């Protein structure tokens, strides 16, 4: 197998780096997305806030290591401007969820292009051999074609293997963003319904 990859030429080096980086990003993101779900705990937080038990709600989200709980924590800590605080926190958390995805997207696009470059280089080598020695060196000609095909196959394979988890991660980001928006809106409404909620917010704007 290694000998076949070596036949792909120097373009296999950047393709190998692409595969290593893609694999690292995929594994890291899989581990990250396995632990970010906290919808049930968020429901409990909103329920406590709706009953006016803000201290209990804060304890529940204190030290939370998932995006949803950190967004709700921002709203509880800044009750008078909960909407703005949670919106700002959500921007940060969504950026964290998307971390590494631009790299994966680049590799998905770059790998086939590197494979195509390997194809072109291999074909050029074959044509140079034919121009110098005619068809008297068939092994050299087929070697250049083999180099082209190996590089192309490798580039496309890396792109395919990376594309599936990339789309999965994007769907996870979109789903988690919807959950954050939904739970943040519920918490905002719950805080506004508390005694003095809306009034305090209006007073804070007057003296701002």
UniProtKB/TrEMBL annotation:
Sequence intervals crossing the membrane: 6-27, 106-128, 148-169
Membrane association type: Multi-pass membrane protein
The keyword Transferase is assigned to this record: no
Localization of this protein: Cell membrane; Membrane
Keywords: Cell membrane, Membrane, Protein transport, Transmembrane, Transmembrane helix, Transport
One GO cellular component term: plasma membrane
Major subcellular site: membrane
BP term (GO), one: protein import
InterPro entries in the cross-refs: ExbB/TolQ_transport, MotA_ExbB_proton_chnl
Annotated ranges, domain MotA/TolQ/ExbB proton channel: 73-181
Source superkingdom: Bacteria
Entry's family note: Belongs to the exbB/tolQ family.
Protein's name according to its UniProt entry: TolQ: protein TolQ
